[in-house]
Amino acid sequence: MHLAYPAVLSVLLFCTGLYGVLARRNAILVLMSVELMLNAVNLNLVAFDVWLSKTAEETLHSGQALTLFTIAIAAAEIGIGLAIVLAVHRNRGTSDIDKLRDTAERHDTDGPDSAALTAEQAGPAEKAEATA
Q1: How far is it, in rounded angstroms, from Cα 92 to Cα 53?
Q2: How far apart are alpha carbons 45 and 38 in whole angstroms?
Q3: pTM for this entry
Q4: CA-angle at 36, arms to 33 and 39, nearest 5°
């Protein structure tokens, strides 16, 4: 097989994953898109390893070994990422990235005067947030 076929497939997979990272709002779908990008890199590593081993008569297969390390790192990344997403979903009730970003920015822009409010002055939303 020619090197162009897996290279083109790898580029298509990587571009699909990049689009998913940039366009998606759900954190789980973003993690899946990152995994798609890592799989495109793995496909490229194996394809170039096979191509170079045919031309150089090497038996080292460093591309395939690097692919195994990439798969192990990707498995750890998805495990930690899912744990973080589930913890955020339990605390905030959503895994929408824009809503999480909006809540973080809202707390930063309150200023130092918001800490001076007492429980009687705060509204019902602030009371619920203060007890949580």
Answers
A1: 51
A2: 11
A3: 0.71
A4: 155
